[in-house]
Amino acid sequence: MKIKPFELERFFAKYEFNTPYLLSCSDCEAFTLNKLLKMADDETKNLWHNLKLSYTESSGHPLLKQEIAKFHTSILPDEINVLVPEEGIFIAMNCILENGDHVISTFPGYQSLYEIANTIGCKVSGWEPVKQNNWFFDVEKLASLIRPETKLIVINFPHNPTGAIINHKQQLGIIELCREKNILLFSDEMYRFLEYNEKDRLPSASDLYENAISLFGLSKSFALPGLRIGWLVSKNKKLMDEIARFKDYTTICNNAPGEILAIIALRNRSNIFRRNLEIIKRNLAVLDSFFLKYSNYFSWNKSNAGSIAFPEFLGNIGIDEFCKRLIEKEGVMILPSSVYNYPGNHFRIGFGRKNMPEALERVEQYLNEKFYNEK
Length: 375
Ligand SMILES: Cc1ncc(COP(=O)(O)O)c(C=O)c1O
Hints:
Elements: H1 7-15, E1 21-22, H2 33-38, H3 42-49, H4 62-69, E2 80-83, H5 85-96, E3 102-106, H6 112-120, E4 123-127, H7 139-145, E5 150-156, H8 168-181, E6 184-188, H9 205-208, E7 212-217, E8 230-234, H10 237-247, H11 256-267, H12 269-293, E9 298-299, E10 308-309, E11 312-313, H13 319-330, E12 332-333, E13 335-336, E14 347-350, H14 356-368
Parallel strand pairs: 1-12, 3-4, 3-5, 5-6, 6-7
Antiparallel strand pairs: 2-8, 7-8, 9-11, 10-14, 13-14
Helix pairs in contact: 4-11, 5-6, 5-10, 12-14
The structure holds pyridoxal-5'-phosphate (PLP).
Pyridoxal-5'-phosphate (PLP) binds next to helix 5.
């Protein structure tokens, strides 16, 4: 299988571990192992201390699947497969799609959500938001992209990179379209539970539609990306069985320590989400003032959920050059829209980490110094 480079991941590979200030990460401030273990109850403490590092149950630890089912109104533990989030995308796309199928995906987006389909030989149409309308995803526009050979619609809300969400009526509209035309729905819900207003939180698509498959996990809302634990959920048994069989060729089963730590995290979900939202909201207030002060340089389309947004740089150099100079002169990494293959001078900013204000001060310093005027 020959697949195009994952531009965003290559950019991170180049800069993430040698740039002092990361201003575009999508995860929240990661917990230390110590802090997470302090949240353990008697049962999970016992599981942790007596953990044997053997192979684990392929679809996930039974207690972990029980905890995951609590995020849902109608999903049973048997309808869950625990895996690495990115692996979930890879496996699901490979199980669902064949050469010649048509796929519609939210765009811009996390590249694997449409690139694996491209590689399989599918035709992919991007469902793009209206930028001028605060990244509004219009369901009528989505309907107009559907073709007789459309096999799959891929959505990602809260959305990477814009932080946009849709409302429940729009979500039901998408499901109605899928049901009417017998289309599968892949719903990437990695940023769920980071809605700034709780009332904006959508039900998981897998609870609403029998041919939806939802992806969620610990990497974003839980601030535990290093555990490499996520899960796919669907009532479509045939598809979930195929996914289980495909996984025998990727990881077979999950890492044993990660599963126990995941159970601890899920049992403390409310406190973890609250802590992450506090960091995000504090940072967003700082960003609001920053973008107001520097409105000559930036157009700020505020996000509605999640830990990232996609503002536009209005300065006199291109976005790639702006990002390069910030890295070189100030040691601050932001992601240019070119890694999303999206035109214009947008960039992804991340605000789930505690040192965001410090990184922003560096940007401010850069804007106020001569570098900006350098050619
Ligand atoms: C929308 C979306 N889906 C899936 C993933 C994959 O998660 P992970 O990197 O933990 O495998 C990411 C990671 O950035 C993401 O932003």
